[in-house]
Automatic annotation (TrEMBL):
Gene coding for it: SLC2A13
Organism: Phascolarctos cinereus
GO molecular function term, any single one: ATPase binding
SUPFAM superfamilies: MFS general substrate transporter
Main location: membrane
Keyword GTP-binding: no
Topology of this chain in the membrane: Multi-pass membrane protein
Role description: H(+)-myo-inositol cotransporter. Can also transport related stereoisomers.
Record localization: Cell membrane
Protein name, UniProt field: Proton myo-inositol cotransporter
Keyword Chloroplast: no
GO cellular component terms given for this protein: apical plasma membrane; cell body; cell projection
Family classification: Belongs to the major facilitator superfamily. Sugar transporter (TC 2.A.1.1) family.
Length: 655
């Protein structure tokens, strides 16, 4: 946003105070690492005193000379401790429980489905409804969450999300039929959508700039942590074939209740309060969150910004149309939505969903072992998100996202090559058994395992002679259990195993499985630190306050819409393009994403939320060239006469 000349006075004051502070720091305290704000506090006080000529102790007075060092030290100690108060961490962890629930509830369903489909005899349509019903509901509520956040505030939205999570989990754990299950999954989905768009915004708004990226990324750490925890719970309760799913789906009520109770006592975002004109309350909460640190500079900068924004953009008309007609927010919206779209188009959820099969291809035949190994995949995703938490404030958002997506693209190519090589050496089908008269025989038309595996209705029954596949056939899968065939030699698991027969559903025995496995591991190692968390982190930062809820609602909505699209189309894509074709396609999307991010994503590391809008003043796709600006840090703030004043109405304010 263009700062007007009326601010020159403020800016000059700021420069002056910084210069004085800098000189003083060099003279008195050359070694200590004092943040720039600290110097300006002291210097601003000096410059204010001398400018005012108030008769109080000034640079020329003996009292001043005698006590200035002590005063400075005392002021430093009292107001400028640079430690981050633990309250910020408490707020972040309680809000990130929303991320945990997002991860848990999207992750747990695959294990629950294995048990549910048998107990409630669910056909494919119902299985799909139960999985995508949640993601679809999340898309709707993420879009609607913008208005909710804007009108009722971040805290109310988080409370609502945790209430929905709790209600949904209770309904799921006591459900007696598939209709009730679907309604429970939809309620949980509504909670996920609201949490996914609100939590990053709330954390970004309460965090100090130097920690913001890290704390918002912790939310994604909680998402992947939730997914990992869900996979462990799936493993544990898979041993309870009757009611195991009730525990799997119901357990999320515990973190949801904890979050709800916590947020009854936790405060609203001070930025939202300032926007709503509740300035006294905002100031109180901001100083509570910042502990010993002085908040005047931050408070003023937020308030000035809101005033300026209102002047520049106006407040009439729906936020989304104002965002689209005002170039900086339009550009930010394109970047935010593009990031979320490319996150999903890189196929993360297909990879997570498909990991058990990739692992089976590499020789893990036991189903239960495959479930446990899938939790190793989820664990890898989680651990490498932790690497992202560590890197985000070191290398910045832009480099982290670019590096991550470049690695992800290479991993996708390796994965695709693994499937391609496997398809080329796919075992031939040597036996064509005749189907019993009342049974489906369409599977017997395939001539190699590859075609058979891509048909969701068929499986591959074979024997091994040393490392060669022999006596192989393609027969229909048993609809009640994918571990067995509907008819033929592989119908009874215990019996066919004793006869040294093998049953492969969804995969083919292949000597190149290691390539796919390598691709899978590399994918997670690269995706998790950058492309996983950064779309959420960047979106929480790039919109000005008036557009933040709406911007995040749109971009989260895009994330969920593409999530549904990619997951629902994966099997069909694989059928038409084969598996390697599907992964080459995702690699192509990742490549496009790389160009988009290289051209359009600016670095937001270390900047105040209020400054970030200025990064979108230039035409889109010039961000790469602006990268060199990283070190240039200009602060636009209004310096008040005293940083110590306690109320908005303090008569000593100089503006
Ligand atoms: O950032 C998250 C994370 O990467 C998850 O693992 C994935 O399942 C979500 O779709 C994504 O939004």
């Amino acid at each position: 946003m263009n700062r007007k000349t009326s601010e020159n006075v403020e800016y000059t004051l700021r420069s002056l105070s910084s210069l004085m502070g800098e000189r003083r720091r060099k003279q008195q305290d050359p070694d200590s690492a004092i943040a720039s704000g600290e110097q300006s506090l002291i210097a601003a006080t000096e410059s204010f005193c001398s400018l005012q000529g108030s008769g109080g102790p000034g640079p020329g007075s003996s009292t001043y000379l005698g006590n200035s060092g002590d005063l400075e030290r005392a002021a430093r100690r009292q107001f400028q401790q640079n430690e981050t108060p633990s309250f910020v961490y408490i707020l972040s962890v309680f809000s990130a429980l929303g991320g945990f629930l997002f991860g848990y509830d999207t992750g747990v369903v695959s294990g629950a489905m294995l048990l549910l489909k048998r107990q409630l005899s669910l056909d494919t349509l119902w299985q799909e409804l139960l999985v995508s019903g949640t993601v679809g509901a999340a898309a709707v509520s993420a879009l609607a969450g913008g208005a909710l956040n804007g009108v009722f505030g971040r805290r109310a939205a988080i409370l609502l999300a945790s209430a929905l999570f709790t209600a949904g989990s209770v309904v799921l754990s006591v459900a007696q039929n598939k209709e009730t299950l679907l309604s429970g999954r939809v309620v949980v989905g509504l909670g996920i959508g609201i949490a996914s768009m609100t939590v990053p915004v709330y954390i970004a708004e309460v965090s100090p700039p130097n920690l913001r990226g890290r704390l918002v990324t912790v939310n994604t750490l909680f998402i992947t942590g939730g997914q990992f925890f869900a996979s462990v719970v799936d493993g544990v309760f898979s041993y309870l074939p009757k009611d195991g799913w009730r525990y799997m789906l119901g357990l999320s009520a515990i973190p949801a209740i904890i979050q709800f109770l916590g947020f009854l006592f936790l405060p609203e975002s001070p930025r939202w309060l300032i926007q709503k004109g509740q300035t006294q309350k905002a100031r109180r909460i901001l100083s509570q969150i910042r502990g010993n640190q002085t908040i005047d500079e931050e408070y003023d900068s937020i308030r000035n910004n809101i005033e300026e924004e209102e002047k520049e953009v106006g407040s009439a008309g729906p936020v989304i149309s104002r965002m689209l007609t005002y170039p900086p927010t339009r550009r930010a919206l394109i970047v935010g939505c593009g990031l979320q779209m490319f996150q999903q188009l890189s196929g993360i959820n297909t990879i997570m969903y498909y990991s058990a099969t990739i692992l089976q291809m590499s020789g893990v035949e036991d189903d239960r072992l495959a479930i446990w190994l899938a939790s190793v995949t989820a664990f890898t995703n989680f651990i490498f998100t932790l690497v992202g938490v560590w890197l985000v404030e070191k290398v910045g958002r832009r480099k982290l996202t670019l590096g991550s997506l470049a690695g992800t693209s290479v991993a996708l190519i390796i994965l695709a090559l693994g499937f391609l090589l496997s398809a080329q050496v796919s075992p031939q089908i040597s036996l064509k058994p005749t189907a019993p008269s009342d049974q489906n025989s369409s599977c017997t038309k395939y001539s190699s395992c590859d075609g058979c595996m891509l048909d969701p209705g068929c499986g591959f029954c074979y024997k091994m002679n040393k490392s060669d596949v022999v006596d192989s056939s393609c027969v229909p899968v048993n609809k009640a259990s994918a571990n067995e065939a509907a008819w033929g030699r592989c119908t009874n698991e215990t019996k066919f195993k004793a006869e040294e027969l093998f049953w492969a559903y969804n995969f083919c025995p292949t000597p190149y499985a290691w390539t796919a496995l390598l691709g899978l591991i590399l994918y997670l190692v690269f995706f998790a630190p950058g492309m996983g968390p950064m779309p959420w982190t960047v979106n929480s930062e790039i919109y000005p306050l008036w557009a933040r809820s709406t911007g995040n609602a749109c971009s989260s909505g895009i994330n969920w819409i593409f999530n549904v699209l990619v997951s629902l189309t994966f099997l069909h894509t694989a059928e038409y393009l084969t598996y390697y074709g599907a992964f080459f396609l995702y690699a192509g999307f990742a490549g496009l994403g790389l160009i988009f991010i290289y051209g359009c994503l600016p670095e937001t590391k270390g900047r105040k939320l209020e400054e970030i809008e200025s990064l979108f003043e230039n035409k889109l796709c010039t961000c790469g060239t602006l990268d060199s600006d990283e070190g240039r840090y200009i602060e636009y703030i209004r310096v008040k006469g005293s940083n110590y004043h306690l109320s908005d109405n303090d008569a000593s304010d100089v503006e």
